[in-house]
Amino acid sequence: MLSIIVAVAENNVIGKDNSLIWKLPRDMRHFKETTTGHYIIMGRKTFESNGRPLPNRTNVIITRDQDYKADGCVVVHSLEDAIKEAKDDLEAFIIGGGVIYDLAMPIVDRIYLTKIHNSFEGDTFFPEINMEEWNVVEERKFEPDEKNKYPFTILTLDRKK
Ligand SMILES: NC(=O)c1ccc[n+]([C@@H]2O[C@H](COP(=O)([O-])OP(=O)(O)OC[C@H]3O[C@@H](n4cnc5c(N)ncnc54)[C@H](OP(=O)(O)O)[C@@H]3O)[C@@H](O)[C@H]2O)c1
């Protein structure tokens, strides 16, 4: 199974200046719990934005640069090769960013979608989701608290068969 995991603002913004805009530790915990032990597939810019391989996961980086090296990571040159690398994982995760989500959207089976109930200025966007193609199989709402400034909802969407 191939899944996207993403956090999206009301206006579809996912990032600005190659970094995340909001800080929501509760959502970061969901990201960590969901992806730990699995393959995570990302664009070169998202990898550099993270600044290091994420621990306890196989980090697969997609770049056109044939000489690109990153310690502790698998480097590939297409989404297809990234998926081949992850073929033995029961569930592999596309973790961004905008360009790689665009490429993966037509072929993923599931989307873990954190909807942040706020709009932000940004330069990177998540593609429009056509809800006619997806079933909402889980929905969890989170209210703001002292550590998490914005309300958000974590949805699990499975592609309709
Ligand atoms: N909110 C969220 O959940 C979330 C999650 C992840 C990232 N983000 C944000 O998204 C932003 C980064 O996204 P982005 O769209 O700018 O970049 P990106 O998707 O992370 O990476 C783009 C890079 O991937 C490589 N690439 C893309 N298509 C390729 C192809 N067909 N074949 C080979 N390589 C390919 C290229 O690397 P080279 O240039 O090296 O060739 C390209 O520059 C940041 O702001 C980050 O914080 C948000």
Task: Please give a structural write-up.
The protein is of the alpha/beta class. It has one domain (2-159): Dihydrofolate Reductase, subunit A. The chain has helices at 25-35, 44-50, 79-85, 98-104, and strands spanning 2-9, 13-15, 39-43, 58-62, 74-76, 92-94, 110-116, 124-125, 134-142, 152-159. The protein has an eight-stranded mixed beta sheet with strand order 5-4-3-6-1-7-10-9, with helices on both faces. It has a two-stranded antiparallel sheet with strand order 2-8. The protein starts with a strand and ends with a strand. 28% of the residues are buried. The mean pLDDT is 98. The structure holds NADP nicotinamide-adenine-dinucleotide phosphate. NADP nicotinamide-adenine-dinucleotide phosphate (NAP) binds at residues 6-7, 14-16, 18-20, 42-46, 49, 62-65, 77-78, 95-100, 124.
Task: Give the structure's gist in a few sentences.
With 161 residues, the protein is α/β, with parallel strands linked by helices.
Mean of pLDDT:
98
**Helical run tally:** 4
The biggest beta sheet reads:
8 strands, mixed
**SSE order in H/E notation?**
EEHEHEEHEHEEEE
Structural class: alpha/beta
* Outline: globular
